[in-house]
Amino acid sequence: MPFLLSSYVTLSSSPATFSVRTPGLVPTGIAPVRVPPLRYVCPMPICVVCAAWGHGPLCPECRSQLRAAKPVMRSGLVVSSGLFHEKSARRLVHLLKYQGLDAAGVVLGQIMAAQVPPGVSTLVPVPRAWARRLRYGVDPARVLARRVGAIAGVEVVEAVGAEVWWPSHAGSDRSSRRPPEFRLVGVVPPGSALVDDVVTTGATLAAAGRITGIHQALTATRADCPSFE
Ligand SMILES: [Zn+2]
User: Fold this and answer.
1) What are the structural domains of the chain?
2) Model pTM greater than 0.70?
3) How far is the CA of 180 from the centre of ligand 1 (A)?
């Protein structure tokens, strides 16, 4: 069972990088996929995504599905995302978000750490609604911010407070979405970037940006289609 791996996972501090080409997945004109080394120490070499034996943390098939995403403007913020929200990357987000699998957070955190924008010295996670945090037992942005902060040597400040509940954006029509209302619960230092698991329209990030004055964000994945869950 994949979730059993979480207690055995530790991070490597190696800063080395490498390039992975994915024939057939990278459209012409887009740079080859670049992801940082994905390493962990585990007694069992199992793929975090598909549980294939013999490879960890990702098997060659799941690794080949990763496509790096370049920074974009979303709702007035510059958003840097590690990967496109598809295939094994989407599965990694869901494993963290809905099953609380720490190993998925480890993998995504390593990829995001390579995307921290220059000049960013503080990460501010965009909190999950309290009702969902209790239901799923995890606040994905908080987990990712801490993973990235530990790897990149960047401070994490939990300066944004969440509502008890707001309508989920997952799979909903854009026109019916209501951005959540956040509250400021801490001091936001200069050079801060928001952290979230997924960005689509950027409405959630924009809501957090309005109360913090932050204009840049880092997410694990970026979804470009209306229905992404
Ligand atoms: Zn796999």
Assistant:
1) 67-228 (3.40.50)
2) yes
3) 34
